[in-house]
Amino acid sequence: MSLIAVVLTQIFTVASAQEYDPYAPPEVIDAPSCVCPATTERPDVIFSGFVIDAEVTLGSDRRSVEDRMATIFDVKWSNNGEIEGRTRLWHTTLDATCGVTFDYGKKYSVAARWLDGDLETDRCLMEAAD
After folding, report:
1. Which residues fall within 8 angstroms of residue 90, CB to CB, at 6 or more apart?
2. CA 100, CA 52: separation in Å to the nearest integer?
3. Cβ contacts of 118-123, under 8 Å, gap ≥ 24
4. Number of Cβ within a 10 Å radius of residue 41
5. E strand segments, the chain
6. What pairs with residue 48 in β-bridges?
7. Radius of gyration of the chain measured on its C-alpha atoms
8. CA–centroid distance for 21 within its chain
C-alpha cells in the first residue's frame, strides 16, 4: 500500500469515527466578549484625525501577528493642543480584550490614555468619552 493510500485510509477512518458531515454548519465557539469596568475611566486626551498607516508586531514564531497593534493618525485637533501630526495609537483588535479597529482614510475622534509614554485606547475608553 502506498503512503498516500495509508494517509487517506487514516483520514477516512478518523472522519467516519467522528461522523464527519461536510454539509454541517461550522461549530460556533463562544468566545469571551468585552466587559467594561463599572467605574468610568476618563481619557487623558481626546484627538481627531485621519488614519494613515498601521504598525503590527510579529509573534514569537515570526509568522503570526500579535493582537496589540498601532494605528497611525494624522492628528488635526486635540483637546490639550499638544498632539498634532503623525501620532501612533496602540490598541488591541480582539473583542475579548475590548479591542477596536480603525479603517484607513477615515476620520475618527479618539479617546486615549498615556501608558508608559505611549498613547493607548480600547473600546471601554472610547465609549466613556462619547
Report:
1. 68, 69, 70, 115, 118, 119, 120, 121
2. 16
3. 118/88, 118/90, 119/45, 119/83, 119/87, 119/88, 119/89, 119/90, 120/89, 120/90, 120/91, 121/43, 121/89, 121/90, 121/91, 122/91, 122/92, 122/97, 122/98, 123/34, 123/36, 123/98, 123/99
4. 14
5. 45-58, 65-78, 85-91, 107-115, 118-120
6. 77, 109
7. 22
8. 32
Taken in order 103, 106, 109, 113, is the CA torsion positive or negative?
Answer: positive
- How many residues in total does the chain contain? 130
Read off the pLDDT of residues 23-36 as tens digits, 9 standing for 90 and up: 655 554 555 688 88
Per residue in 54-79, pLDDT (tens digit) is: 999 888 888 888 889 999 999 999 99
Q: Nearest 5 degrees, angle CA 107-CA 112-CA 115? A: 140
Residues 13, 18, 22, 27, Cα dihedral to 10°: -150
DSSP state, 44?
A: S
CATH class given for the domain over 45-129: mainly beta
> For position 21, what pLDDT does the model report?
62
Q: Could you tell me the three cell numbers for 30?
A: 463562544
